[in-house]
Design goal:
By secondary structure, the protein is an alpha/beta fold. The chain contains five helices and five strands; from the N terminus they run H-E-H-E-H-E-H-E-H-E. Helices cover about 50% and strands about 20% of the residues.
Length: about 140
């Protein structure tokens, strides 16, 4: 009788504790920020670094999406180099809105190759939110 009781208890505990532990181990915190001003990248990078330290192993993906007329400023590759280096250090992927590039007649070839261009920055933001990303717009 004792063996049956302990075997049953072991099975029940394994059923109810393993999924919880698996979720805790694999859960990552992902972030996305939508901005229309390049200078805002600096505080975005600082925020990403602080969250990475706070989250530890749970820190996942961090993306900064640039939309609007400011995409014209991305063509200054020398000025952008500092932001690119800071983005890499902070583990932030900088994404550029393709619709903004078209609207303001900026050729994607004229922006640094380290920046990812997506067809629609707003849509990309919503798609990330649907995947559970925490989001803010500046």
């Amino acid at each position: 009788m004792k063996i049956l009781f302990f075997n049953t208890l072991a099975i029940i505990l394994s059923i109810f504790t393993n999924p919880v532990k698996a979720q805790e181990i694999h859960h990552k915190h992902n972030y996305v920020v939508l901005t229309n001003k390049i200078p805002q990248l600096q505080p975005i990078f600082l925020t990403a670094e602080a969250l990475a330290e706070e989250d530890g192993e749970s820190f996942g993906d961090f993306q900064a999406i640039i939309c609007g007329a400011t995409v014209k400023d991305l063509t200054d590759k020398e000025a952008m180099q500092t932001f690119i280096e800071k983005a890499e250090k902070a583990a932030v992927k900088v994404v550029v809105c393709g619709l903004s590039l078209k609207k303001f007649k900026v050729d994607p070839k004229d922006i640094p190759k380290e920046l990812e261009v997506v067809a629609n920055g707003l849509l990309h933001d919503f798609q990330l939110q649907k995947k559970g990303y925490l989001s803010i717009e500046l």
